[in-house]
């Protein structure tokens, strides 16, 4: 089957591969032609289809070439008129000959179409078509600088050299198609917005080396809101592929410094998607700190397993309806030409109103049923509001199961839950049901309040819907939303963070009953400390704070290095009593010395 037949089948036949045009092409293993070539031909033909329809009809191509179908005619005419190499078929091929026989008339009609649109050159014609495709306000291209391999300043001096920095995202979204402008995002660190067509960044050295990653702004919210830190312990990304959020977690931690042994666990139950995940993690340079669990379902992971004993934070981005994704409707409306009936000739006795006989192999076009395509590319027929609601409820039940499973990890203190959906049922609905669950009440999970969130998320003013949160304004304010086409340049998105302090119910009782406190002691009852004075936690067997592998300034408590509230000797070491506790400056009184060691909260050194 030729390139043109494959593109025609893709555009007009029933889809057996769900998702956007791009995902359908690149996930189709039956294609004989290069997927990139099929995708480019299909997309560009759709963009030009209103013009091509006009050209084919005015040139009466289908009247003279009865074996051509309408879809094949515009695919072939597109390449004849607009492709650099022309039609990708030998000169002797029947399809190419059916176009070559009419090339003068086709070229003439194309020129007339250009002039009717007041375009003096082919280039201005191309710009007009691209502008119509993008719309008056274009969605920006978001690019995250990968902090593991580069810096924002380094990229501004290289990849983005020659770009004009503008203060607002609106100026990027309304800029001319090829104008080199960029906006430094004010909410997410290391994030840049540029016009979508200004440059193919996938061909830049920075992209190939993993120094920059193409990621929508809203997709950056979960890792940034989770705010991973060295003291959080290990981190789980429960639904990782393709790896944008996984590498974002690693990028944030690389700037702060990974604690000794700190690991990101990346789960992906689909084996093929796991290969994509592993490739991305390697290119981004986070493979040394990330353990990929290919073909493993997060829901089957045992929270009490030794492997996850140190997990303190989880990022959950499960399958959803994908209703907020920009580019899901990435194909413009396809305009097909109508075949012209043969005109009556004197004496032939044929009616001029007779319909053209359907070409061999051409199937009658029937209206396609409404489809809902989730973010994994799975299609569901939606013929009514009831069907849509049932699908949303099914997804929400699965999403809730993921959240409740995350709540069970013994040492977890932070969990983000996100979707690229705009439906309340998948967002605020799941949040409220999670808060009302038995495990949330038992372990003390609550929504992280807006005023507690990192600055960029606290300042983001699009919050959850109060109605969806059953009237709870505090919970709604803690939820973060984004809407496509609202002038902020993001996809539709939702994220919320759940937190707990670890002193609820059975955990609190256990700590209170342990008179020796949370730290390991020697045979004399003294707290065991390392050379930095850091004690070892009983619960995890790890240091209360890991120091050796942490980059940058590290502070325990308040005050600057070499100072603090404790007495030091001539070598600057903290002076400790027989029980290993430090001595307070200014004559520590008896009350201070007798304080319970359970209250130890770190040193200044």
Automatic annotation (TrEMBL):
S-adenosyl-L-methionine in keyword set: yes
Family per similarity comment: Belongs to the class I-like SAM-binding methyltransferase superfamily. RsmB/NOP family.
Residue spans of biased composition, Acidic residues class: 590-605
Occurrences of domain SAM-dependent MTase RsmB/NOP-type (ranges): 131-501
This protein's record includes keyword DNA-binding: no
List of residues binding S-adenosyl-L-methionine: 239-245, 268, 297, 317
Alphabetized UniProt keyword annotations: Methyltransferase, RNA-binding, S-adenosyl-L-methionine, Transferase
Organism: Podospora bellae-mahoneyi
Listed InterPro entries: MeTrfase_RsmB-F_NOP2_cat, MeTrfase_RsmB-F_NOP2_dom, NSUN5_7_fdxn-like, NSUN5_RCM1_N, RCMT, SAM-dependent_MTases_sf
Compositionally biased residues, Basic and acidic residues: 566-576
Region Disordered: start-end pairs: 339-367, 548-605
Transmembrane annotation, as ranges: none
Protein name: SAM-dependent MTase RsmB/NOP-type domain-containing protein
Pfam families reported in the protein's UniProt record: Methyltr_RsmB-F, NSUN5_fdxn-like, NSUN5_N
Active site: 420
